[in-house]
Amino acid sequence: MRIKSVTLHIISMPLKKPFVTHLQKVEEREGIIIEVRDKEGVCGLGEGVAFSTPWYTEETVKTSHHMLKDVLIPLMNSKSFHHPEEIGKRFEAVRGNAMAKAALEMALWDLYARQKGVPLWNLIGGTREEVLAGAVVGAGSIPEMINQAEDLVKEGYQRIKLKISPGADVEIVKELRSHFPNLSLLADANSAYSLEDVPRLQALDEFDLEMIEQPLGIDDLVEHSLLQKEISTPICLDESIVTPHDMRSAIHLNSCGVVNIKLGRVGGYSSALEIYRLCREHDIKVWCGGMIEFGVSRAHNLALSTLEGFRIPGDISSSSKYWEEDIITSPIVVRNGVVDRLEGPGIGVELNRKRLSAVTQFKEDFTLDETHNKF
Ligand SMILES: [Mg+2]
């Protein structure tokens, strides 16, 4: 693919409002924006979605930076390649670190599509012209959560996700359901429960949730399969599905009826497309999860969500839900619960250089001829 250079921008931006889960209150979002440039000057964009601290997975912005700089960029540069899929395979030699791998792999897919002059959604076989958008209500008091949900419904979001944890669950879901009798609601537990909580989780069955996301351990598949036998609400796995192998195991065990596919969590497109294929083959529903991300990752999520199987609204909110000003020139906008797919080459967005430099804390350039043969 004739890569000439890679640039990493480590950025930090305050959220308009803090985002609260039982694990973490996110007030300031750090992230890594990656530019991969070829010899003709065409530029592909990726985004590292690890948080500042390891509350969602083990990765952080600092570990991603280390992996990119010291391992993944040199590995990418260790021999030539013709397609970004080869890099997805090559990165399998490195254990874990899915978000760091995804950040660079996503940039290469974007670059490849731009080199061909086609939208990335087209390259991966997407067909949807509009992507269905849902949004997340962070944890808070019941009136606060109802207010947040009301605002989102007014903005047209078609599905609302609630963050729940033991003691902040049945009452919240009951109130939200009675307030919005016909709204598509789902609850995300971010691993807050154990099998001892089966009665509490059974108590949620009557509220007609679309699904309950990741109730049990972050790396568990067996207990989720036991729980699914006890509750009628479909289980959606998030944190537990990192690789296609995890997905095959979840299928064997009947651990879930739904999977939230996040490019960052699964290490990029090669893995995400394989997980998607497995889900389609086995009648498991899919949707695209969010990571409180900036516009580059949002545009990648949009491309992925044009695949036919993404029938459940994803965490694809407007840039303006979190940011005063995003780092792309045309912010993502949800209208009446949908986002139009982006028609430009690659992911269809460009960097807002002024905004990017205003929020950049650290920038690093790699000229690949210099790093060649170091790995
Ligand atoms: Mg989740």
Short description:
With 375 residues, the protein is an alpha/beta fold. It has helices spanning 61-76, 84-90, 98-116, 120-123, 142-154, 170-179, 198-202, 222-230, 244-253, 263-266, 269-281, 295-304, 319-322, 353-359, 368-371, and strands spanning 3-20, 25-38, 43-48, 130-132, 135-137, 159-163, 184-188, 212-213, 235-237, 258-261, 285-288, 338-340, 360-367. Strand 6, helix 6 and strand 7 form a beta-alpha-beta unit.
Structure in words:
Mg(2+) binds at residues 188, 213, 238. Pfam families: MR_MLE_C (PF13378), MR_MLE_N (PF02746). Converts 2-succinyl-6-hydroxy-2,4-cyclohexadiene-1-carboxylate (SHCHC) to 2-succinylbenzoate (OSB). Its EC number is 4.2.1.113. This protein has two domains: 3-117 and 351-371, Enolase-like, N-terminal domain (Enolase-like, domain 1, 2-Layer Sandwich); 122-340, Alpha-Beta Barrel (TIM Barrel), CATH 3.20.20.120. 36% of the residues lie in helices and 21% in strands. It has helices spanning 61-76, 84-90, 98-116, 120-123, 142-154, 170-179, 198-202, 222-230, 244-253, 263-266, 269-281, 295-304, 319-322, 353-359, 368-371; strands at residues 3-20, 25-38, 43-48, 130-132, 135-137, 159-163, 184-188, 212-213, 235-237, 258-261, 285-288, 338-340, 360-367. A seven-stranded parallel sheet has the order 5-6-7-8-9-10-11. Strands 3-2-1-13 form a four-stranded antiparallel sheet, sandwiched between helices. The protein has a two-stranded antiparallel ribbon with strand order 4-12. α1 (61-76) packs across α3 (98-116). The structure holds magnesium ion. Magnesium ion is lined by residues 188, 190, 213-214, 238, 260, 289.
